[in-house]
Amino acid sequence: MLADLPPSRTEGDGSAVVRVLSYNIRSMRDDTGALARVIRACAPDVVCVQEAPRFFRWRKAAARLARTSELVYVTGGATASGPMILSSLRATVEHTEDVLLPRTPGLHQRGFATAVLRFGRARLGVLSCHLSMKDGERFGQGKLLLDRLASLGVPHAVAAGDLNDRPDGRTFGLLADALQDGWATKPWGREHTTRLGDPLQRIDAVFATPGVEVLGCGVPMGLPGIAERDLRAATDHLPVLAALRVPAV
């Protein structure tokens, strides 16, 4: 049985342990009950969603996912062309902004869902992303991600999502050079995020700015409450869970 990450808590110095989950949910086209069970078992404070519902009645679908996961909707979905942010009631939402990225003709529209959340005296910028399948466009989006993260105006931030790139790719490398790659910094759980039975790849990740302490990061396979059948049924990606200590400001 996989040992759990540190629980959410506020430390005596005002810093906060925040659990961040990144999850590509394939527009909730699969088993939504399994999806909610996986999310609840991870006990996240923040969920960076990719491929959130973004067409017919997407707001109702997002609200249903938040409710069944025991979370609240923060921002994103159709307004960010797929990325979305959910949070627990522990978070105070200070600011949100959804950003549509420059689009290459013939390729999907991409965007970022962003928010600034406060956990007591700790403030955390959050960015959920789903980058392009095409290398050139993806690399440009990686640069825009770093710019957007810096523009949130907080000293500590996290970016999480489906990169469509592997650790040896140039966009993944761009982000890992500027930020802390959660798995590489403090590996925990399973590394690879592709669907069970597919070729092993790590294409989903959680990154944190310098100054945030990564307490552990990886796929929560084997975590109590998470059944392999639910991971298989929920969507075509595996989730990435990170525990981060965010300093007080």
TrEMBL record:
Question: Is the keyword Hydrolase assigned to this protein?
Answer: yes
Q: Name one GO molecular function term.
A: endonuclease activity
Recorded superkingdom: Bacteria
Tell me one Pfam family matched here: Exo_endo_phos
| Domain Endonuclease/exonuclease/phosphatase positions | 21-237
Recite the UniProt keywords alphabetically. Endonuclease, Exonuclease, Hydrolase, Nuclease
The species this protein was found in: Streptomyces netropsis (Streptoverticillium netropsis)
| Record's protein name | Endonuclease/exonuclease/phosphatase family metal-dependent hydrolase
InterPro entries, per this entry? Endo/exonu/phosph_ase_sf, Endo/exonuclease/phosphatase
